[in-house]
Amino acid sequence: MAIFRFHQYQVVGRALPTAAEEHPKIYRMKLWATNEVRAKSKFWYFLRKLKKVKKSNGQVLAINEIFERKPTKIKNYGIWLRYQSRTGYHNMYKEYRDTTLNGAVEQMYNEMASRHRVRCHCIQIIKTATIPSKLCKRESTKQFHDSKIKFPLVFKKVRPPTRKLKTTFKASRPNLFK
Amino acid sequence: MPFKRYVEIGRVALVNYGKEYGRLVVIVDVIDQNRALVDAPDMVRGQMNFKRLSLTDIKIDIPRVPKKKTLISAMEAADVKNKWENSSWGRKLIVQKRRASLNDFDRFKVMLAKIKRGGAIRQELAKLKKEKAA
């Protein structure tokens, strides 16, 4: 299991009870953040935009990290996101093949940064879902839906098994085939 | 010169980098262009980058994502362990490991054995040279 930069948290919170409202509505949100403190902060950011409540007049009731249920099963993840580019906000839908949702989300952040130069603080994840193979939209994920998949590894990179054995000069040219 | 070793479900590969260095694993599924789901009888199934794998000639017959028991029985049926240890690649790795684990007394014994072998070769060569000259 790799180290994930982004963890998935479930944050539950509500406004503080007042004399007018004894039992305010409780809201739950699933979001991605690098740690719990950031997760709580993100929770209030989104909740402020949806309801008339702020961190100063609200309370977080629970925050739990959500872990992958079946990390050995390969799944197709669809991620709906909203990002800010240099000229405005856009929505996007991206598909990834991965074993865990955290891994797919990390792939998404890396891809958005490389393909669109969008940094992680300009991305809001609207929704994520595991997509069954029939409903996948992108060719790049659909090409791996083959039970008899077979392809050669075309370029063999020759590298020493540990970084300690790395040398600047080699006696002979490497064999890159196979 | 077409390709002979393909990444496919059931291909046996050797891990050539990282924590699992030197282990024989079976490719159980392909995640995407760079990663595969690999499994071995004594490790938790996990994903691995193709850059860390060296494909071997051995391929076993398994369905797409087999249960651990199916995998182990398929590996027994195909006799992967013996095929690997009898192949020239496998034998070389075993010899390398043996040489790395010699202690000083073993190295002394190896030196004596090499001298003895060299002496025997030179004797035969001298005999052949004499026959040639005669």
From TrEMBL, chain A:
<dbReference type="GO" id="GO:0006412">
    <property type="term" value="P:translation"/>
</dbReference>
<protein>
    <recommendedName>
        <fullName>60S ribosomal protein L18a</fullName>
    </recommendedName>
</protein>
<feature type="domain" description="Large ribosomal subunit protein eL20">
    <location>
        <begin position="7"/>
        <end position="128"/>
    </location>
</feature>
<dbReference type="GO" id="GO:1990904">
    <property type="term" value="C:ribonucleoprotein complex"/>
</dbReference>
<dbReference type="InterPro" id="IPR021138">
    <property type="entry name" value="Ribosomal_eL20_eukaryotes"/>
</dbReference>
<dbReference type="InterPro" id="IPR023573">
    <property type="entry name" value="Ribosomal_eL20_dom"/>
</dbReference>
<dbReference type="Pfam" id="PF01775">
    <property type="entry name" value="Ribosomal_L18A"/>
</dbReference>
<comment type="similarity">
    <text>Belongs to the eukaryotic ribosomal protein eL20 family.</text>
</comment>
<dbReference type="GO" id="GO:0005840">
    <property type="term" value="C:ribosome"/>
</dbReference>
<dbReference type="InterPro" id="IPR028877">
    <property type="entry name" value="Ribosomal_eL20"/>
</dbReference>
<keyword id="KW-0687">Ribonucleoprotein</keyword>
<dbReference type="GO" id="GO:0003735">
    <property type="term" value="F:structural constituent of ribosome"/>
</dbReference>
<keyword id="KW-0689">Ribosomal protein</keyword>
From TrEMBL, chain B:
<dbReference type="InterPro" id="IPR039660">
    <property type="entry name" value="Ribosomal_eL14"/>
</dbReference>
<dbReference type="GO" id="GO:0003735">
    <property type="term" value="F:structural constituent of ribosome"/>
</dbReference>
<dbReference type="GO" id="GO:0006412">
    <property type="term" value="P:translation"/>
</dbReference>
<dbReference type="GO" id="GO:0003729">
    <property type="term" value="F:mRNA binding"/>
</dbReference>
<dbReference type="InterPro" id="IPR014722">
    <property type="entry name" value="Rib_uL2_dom2"/>
</dbReference>
<dbReference type="Pfam" id="PF01929">
    <property type="entry name" value="Ribosomal_L14e"/>
</dbReference>
<comment type="similarity">
    <text>Belongs to the eukaryotic ribosomal protein eL14 family.</text>
</comment>
<dbReference type="GO" id="GO:0022625">
    <property type="term" value="C:cytosolic large ribosomal subunit"/>
</dbReference>
<dbReference type="InterPro" id="IPR008991">
    <property type="entry name" value="Translation_prot_SH3-like_sf"/>
</dbReference>
<protein>
    <recommendedName>
        <fullName>Large ribosomal subunit protein eL14 domain-containing protein</fullName>
    </recommendedName>
</protein>
<dbReference type="GO" id="GO:0042273">
    <property type="term" value="P:ribosomal large subunit biogenesis"/>
</dbReference>
<feature type="domain" description="Large ribosomal subunit protein eL14">
    <location>
        <begin position="45"/>
        <end position="117"/>
    </location>
</feature>
<dbReference type="InterPro" id="IPR002784">
    <property type="entry name" value="Ribosomal_eL14_dom"/>
</dbReference>
<keyword id="KW-0689">Ribosomal protein</keyword>
<keyword id="KW-0687">Ribonucleoprotein</keyword>
